Fold:
Amino acid sequence: MFDWIGNIIILIGIIFIIFGIYGIFRFSNFYNRILIAAKVDTVGFITILIGVIIKQGFSFFSLKVILIILLMLIVNPLTTHYITRSAYLSGYRIKNEDEEEKQ
Amino acid sequence: MRKLFYYFSIIIICSMIWVILNEELSVVNYILGGVFGFISIVITENLLLLNKFSNLYQINLLVLIKYLFNLIINIYASGFTTIIKIVTGKINPGIVEIKTEITNDLYICLLANAITLTPGTVTLEKKGQNLKVLWLDCTTKDSIKAGKIIMGSFEKIFIN
Structure:
């Protein structure tokens, strides 16, 4: 029973990540790409790990996975922030999608 | 007395992590984790940090639990709206400056962390109480209205 619920939740996480990859190829501007790439993957990653916890049940293994989730919640925004900030400081500015296609 | 309780709670958390990583539930293992936690606290406080632990990280446990609970709900709510925006393709990115009313520096960092974690917004810069935010669906450039939409319920948790 718990096995099947876990499988379904892992599948939902994979669908989130598929939409994220589709979004990266759909938009051409740098800022749109970084907003979508880092974010939808966050949701997908957390969903997959919650699915793993439910599938495994309560044990030392699932407690370790909870530690990984807490670590990810601290570290993931830092990497996104640094990449975006360095792009902003080195002079990238926001353009509209339509203007880029005309050029 | 309050300081002693603070360090005691940090040592308990350290030894719990030690027990989880070693996968062995026994008294000896728990005490060993406490000893290693004490040693790591002494080393970080004397060699790495510029101030004491109890001055830098003053955080209420109840606030932290509320924050994590709110974070998960917000991540999923804005994850779904971001997917709808990807499929329809109607996006309008822009940079907004917002101002918080929180004075504690650690809480402002936690707020910026939450803004970056929720899909659709990324914090670019923090100067005192001002935050510069990159926003996927930039409907207003007004700092007060944008702050209400972006920060939402996070600001209320920290002020209370």
Q: What stands out?
A: Residues 42 and 73 of chain A are 9 Å apart (CA to CA). Chain A touches chain B at residues 16, 19, 22-23, 26-27, 29, 31-32, 34-36, 38-40, 42-43, 46, 60, 63-64, 67, 73-74, 76-77, 80-81, 84-85, 88, 94, 97 (CB under 8 Å). The first helix of chain A runs from residue 2 to 26.
